[in-house]
Amino acid sequence: MSIRRYLIHVGAATALLASVLVAVNVTVDSFDVFALVRGKMVNVRLATALRMAKAYAIHTYRPDCLVLGSSRAEVGIRPAHGGWSCDRPYNSGLPAGQIYEARRYLEHAIAQGPVKQVLLGLDLEIFRTDGRHRGDFMEARLAHNSKARWSSYPVNELLGLALGADALLKSIDMLRNPVEVYALELSGERSTAWWEHESAGRSVRDLSADLLQGVATQIGKPGALAPGLDDRLPSLEELERIIELCREHGIELRLAINPTHVLLHATMADIGQQGTFLKWKRAIVQIAARAHSRGADVLLWDFALLNDLTTEPVPKVADRSQLMHWFWEPSHFRTAYGNLMVETIYSNRPTPVEIAVRPDVATISESERVYRVEFERWMHNHPAEIAAVKNWLAPTRKKYGIESGIENWHTENVNPGD
Of 93, 112, 138, 165, which residue is the least packed, with the fewest Cβ within 10 Å? Predict the structure, then answer.
């Protein structure tokens, strides 16, 4: 066989193999990216590549209302719930999301078309200083800024998804083991069925222990949160950039400090970060007040209160059938709570209990005083839960050399005049 004939055969075989790879990977579309590229909104199946899927979904869907934040916003806020004054709301919350990512996904959305409303769910964890984003974040998927339209898809990523061996293995696995439930609904929020499937067979108490250990690892790590928290930290400057983006583009911005269960508050106290949490809230209040005085359409709501909902008892028995009504576990609120949030922010409807306040510079000291009194009362009445939190977090405290601070949490240096 001549060299020319040999090369023709090799080229034909290579082309055939590439065609098969593309046919299988594009048809199976394990990450649902090719459907989105074709302009079709789909229920995303895999929870392992949500940053990728949501970047493509925003380009396809061109949302005019956007939910931003961490997995708490992603899990708890349903864009389809009433209250929005737009046609295409989308939940762009990201698991373990960072405030930098929230700003970049907002810029990406604005570059696709006009955005009317933004609801940004705020957590202390998204302001961590130990990194901008997770490894699956990619700048190339997003518009360069809010004024530069995204003219092309990231070619290298699409080629990898079409021709890559890893993509082929994922496709084969998907064919052998079809996904039983979708990870995301069409409008971007995490599927309730997915959450139930992932936690099947585990009690709320077991989930609580794991999630609280994860949060403690995130914010208890030395350097993760600056001890002298103030409003000049780079992560807080990202919030100011988001506010300015919304002001420039005439977007109504609502900031919501997310509700968390009292056991998460106990976790922060045990690892010595309760004072940081209160200083952080004070910094958010000051940033929102300054922005409002400059003409930004921004309002702040604080849902991180202690009330009958956030102090809902965690089932004591290791029985998966025993569920909580308002929370999946102490870190993530359910859509029942999220619906109350949306109604409070956008409809001013009365709620069963006071679930939020509108803090400002004049009232933040009183809000802190009430919070401290309520937390002290809860600790006094729930010694068994305090003991459980201390036991769950013992490995984290040992790892980082932290003494349990839950008994003297109120002595932390949080001066109302700071």
Answer: 165
Q: Please name the amino acid found at residue 375.
A: F
Interior/surface letters 51-80, b for 16+ CB within 10 angstroms, e for the rest: bbbbbbbbbbbbbbbbbbbbbbbbbbbbbe
Q: How far apart are CA 129 and CA 225, in angstroms?
A: 6
Rounded to an integer, what distance in angstroms lies between the CA atom of residue 96 and that of residue 71?
Answer: 6
- Joined together, the tokens standing for residue 85 give 């004054």
State the Cα–Cα distance between residues 239 and 289, nearest whole angstrom. Answer: 13
DSSP label of 312: P
Alpha-carbon distance of 173 to 165, in angstroms, equals: 12
Q: In this predicted structure, what is the pLDDT of residue 234?
A: 67
CA dist 189 and 405 (Å) reads 36
Nearest to 92 by CA among 62, 114, 131, 113: 62
Tell me the two tokens of residue 113.
């078309």
| Rounded alpha-carbon distances, angstroms, from residue 83 to 89, 257, 284, 300 | 11, 18, 24, 17
In three-state form (DSSP H/G/I as H, E/B as E, the rest C), the secondary structure along 132-149 is CCCCCCCHHHCCCCCCCC
| pTM reported for the whole predicted model | 0.90
Residues 300-338 pLDDT 10s: 999 999 999 999 999 887 677 788 999 999 999 999 999
What are residue 276's phi and psi, to 5 degrees?
-60, -40
Q: What mean pLDDT value characterizes the chain?
A: 84
End-to-end Cα, the chain, rounded Å? 84
18-46: per-residue pLDDT in tens?
677 777 777 777 777 777 777 777 778 77
Residues in a beta bridge with 298:
253
CA angle 212, 240, 146 (to 5 degrees): 105
**Neighbouring residues of 345: CB distance < 8 A, sequence distance ≥ 6:** 83, 119, 254, 256, 299, 301
Supply 243's token pair: 């506010």
Going from the C-alpha of 345 to that of each of 56, 178, 339, 351, 355, the distances in angstroms are: 29, 39, 10, 11, 11
d(C-alpha 219, C-alpha 273), whole Å: 8
Listing DSSP states for 135-186 in one string gives: TT--GGGS-SSTTS---S--HHHHHHHHH-HHHHHHHHHHHHS--SS-SB-T
